[in-house]
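Hello forum,

I keep getting stuck at the same step: I have a sequence, I want structure tokens, and every attempt I make locally crashes halfway through. Rather than fight my setup again tonight, could one of you with a working pipeline run this one for me? It's a single chain of 84 residues.
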Amino acid sequence: MLMMARREGETILIGDDIEVVIAHIGRSRVKVGIRAPRELAVIAREVKLVREENQAASARSEAALSRLITHFRPAASSSPRSGR
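Reply #2:
Ran it on my machine without issues. Output:
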């Protein structure tokens, strides 16, 4: 990991296309701006982790729902109904 000291308003370049700007330095937080091509996804790591957890939970829920539907679906009768 590369560590750099930067002041407010200074930038860090990543390759030719990505620029990280130190927008504001507060008491306990730093605001960072990122300029990158539109086709490049830029998201907070926490957002990615939550998305992955939600997708995993959704897959488990889908499998459980399929089992429930199969369990509660009326069994098809093998004999034709009598016409009484």
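The radius of gyration is 27 Å. If your local run keeps crashing, start a new thread with the error log.
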